[in-house]
Amino acid sequence: MAVALAVTGGGGQYNGRMTWFVVLSCMMAAMGGVIFGYDIGISDSYNDYPCEGGVTSMEPFLKKFFPEVYRKMKVDTKISNYCKFDSQLLTSFTSSLYIAGLVATFFASSVTKVFGRKLSILTGGAAFLAGSALGGAAFNVYMLIFGRILLGIGVGFANQSVPLYLSEMAPPRYRGAINNGFQFSIGIGALVANLINFGTEKIEGGWGWRISLAMAGVPASILTLGALFLPETPSSLIQSSSDHDKAKQLLQRVRGTTDVEAELEDLIKASSISKTIKHPFKKIIQRKYRPQLVMAIAIPFFQQVTGINVIAFYATLLFRTIGIGESASLLSSVVTGVIGAGSTFISMLIVDKFGRRALFMVGGIQMLISQILIGGIMATQLGDHGTVSQGYAYLIIILICIYVAGFGWSWGPLGWLVPSEIYQLEIQSAGQSITVAVSFIFTFIVAQTFLSMLCHLKAGIFFFFGGWVIVMTAFVYYLLPETKNVPIEQMENVWKEHWFWAGIVGEEDEKIKIQGV
Ligand SMILES: OC[C@H]1O[C@](O)(CO)[C@@H](O)[C@@H]1O
Fold it and tell me: In this entry, which stretches build a coiled coil (predicted)?
């Protein structure tokens, strides 16, 4: 007889195994990650710095859409001077994606909550598709920017709904593995974009950038089609309809067992609370939800101030130093991309066994040590020309790889996983929108400020981000409870049992009890 460890309603684990149903729907949903990564990689290797790789470094592209930048680039050929890329129009091109994404993700919150995860994923896919078509066909800069706005709407919707979809679809004990697949897909998307750019840059006639932009249509189509055929998640189905029989059938199919009572009961309970909540954004600022709100903001913020994008950018300069020259940007994105995706893959395999906290700790310490060493070497070895010797460049590249692996199994994937699994149903959709918005804001701020930071702080920039890594590692150590294997519907309890959060959410419980008497 099968061992049924499930405890009915309110405690312990649910039944269910990893079914093909789950695997397939998650593969489809992961296309949302591929497109996000592809967007990051295609406009530029490192979040849109118009200097290395990416369409914004292709001369024909700049000549056509940003002639002023192109002229400056031709006049001043000193490679180290990145200021020449400074252009209002180019900045609007870059930022349009993030700003559109920021706004869209709040709309996505209502769509996801009221109409379900599928519709948000579908909207994201369709916006991507339209955006890639416009970008590929653009004949002026406005069309280009409009296309990028549509891509932004796409990421706003997809990043809001896909992580939730993945976490709800997954059986709790595989949730980490499945959700980490999102960051893995981001990594694959970025890598593929870099490879495609490398090829299209060489196309005679200077129209290769059109292929780069239009190819985003491939994962976008898979996502759109997938969303049409994907099943809704059981909790979303229960939230949006009162047909519990249908939800039960779906749950049975998804979990691959007929014994789903415990989970169904918890889902129905969670959804009836959620249905009484009309304004989730007002709700989430209540003291009762303080830990979730803090995590919704802190986690994506920390993910960006690890400094990952700056380090990845810096890797290219080092590949130049060791004499790779022209292909430096490609090689560096392939090396960091493969290591990043590889380590995220490892994290998929171990996150549900060792837990989130252990990975955060190991990754954090690993990133910190490599950052300190890189900063130290840079501070002591930087020559007159602002470069290090070849030998040290090799050493720094190795340290960068160690850093990237650290990010790849900790803050990279967990920055998406943890927020997607900690919210109660009534605040889940709002919480995830806040996470996406904070992520976009800081990705953008770091991208926009780091060149001048690099210029002023020099080696100090590694200590700056290293300092943040210390803060976030301590934050996780003291304030983030372990969430592995805990069903989402029972996640509330982890705060009630936490040394610090218990005082905050517990007090609220007391008040409710007193009022209730
Ligand atoms: O999760 C998103 C983050 O992960 C990266 O793709 C690196 O793997 C970053 O470029 C991005 O900011």
Answer: none
| Residue closest by Cα to atom 1 of ligand 1 | 412
Helix, strand, coil distribution of the chain in percent, nearest 5: 80, 0, 20
Written as one string, the DSSP assignment of 407-451 is HHHTHHHHHHHHHHHHS-HHHHHHHHHHHHHHHHHHHHHHHHHHH
Q: How far apart are CA 137 and CA 131, in angstroms?
A: 10
- Tell whether the model's pLDDT for residue 58 goes beyond 90: no
Distance of CA 436 to the CA centre of its chain: 8
Ligand 1 proximity of 197 Cβ (cutoff 6 Å): no
Amino acid (one-letter) located at 9: G
* Local confidence band at 6 (pLDDT 50, 70, 90 cut-offs): very low
pTM of the prediction? 0.88
* β partners of residue 7: 11
Domain contains 12: no
pLDDT at 414: 97
Q: Categorize the per-residue pLDDT at 47 as very low, low, confident or very high, splitting at 50, 70 and 90.
A: very low
Token pair of 453, please? 């930071």
Residue 240 within any structural domain of the chain? no
d(CA 394, CA 41): 24
The answer, yes or no, to whether any atom of ligand 1 lies below 6 A from the CB of 186, is yes
| Three-class SS state of 11 | strand
Residues 29 and 165 sit within 8 Å (Cβ to Cβ): yes
43 alpha carbon – ligand 1 mean position (Å): 14
Can you give the pLDDT at residue 126? 96
Distance from residue 36's CA to the centre of ligand 1 (Å): 9
CATH number at residue 131: 1.20.1250.20
Calculate the CA dihedral of residues 189, 162, 414, 306 and round it to 10 degrees. Answer: 60
Measured from the Cα of 344, ligand 1's closest atom is: 8
Q: Is residue 348 part of a domain?
A: yes
Residue 255 lies in a domain: no
Does residue 47's CB lie within 6 angstroms of at least one atom of ligand 1? yes
Residue nearest to atom 8 of ligand 1 (CA): 187
pLDDT, position 46: 42
| Mean pLDDT in residue range 116-139 | 95
The two three-digit tokens of residue 467, written as one number: 């300092």
CA distances for 300 relative to 129, 246, 441, 472, angstroms:
26, 36, 10, 11
Number of domains in the chain: 1
Decide: 481 in ligand 1 pocket, CB within 6 A.
no
CB of 309 closer than 6 A to ligand 1?
yes
Q: Which residue has the tokens 């001048």?
A: 452
Q: Give the other-Cβ count within 10 Å of 149's Cβ.
A: 20
CA quadruple 441, 445, 448, 450: dihedral positive or negative?
A: negative
The domain of 61 spans: 28-230+277-508
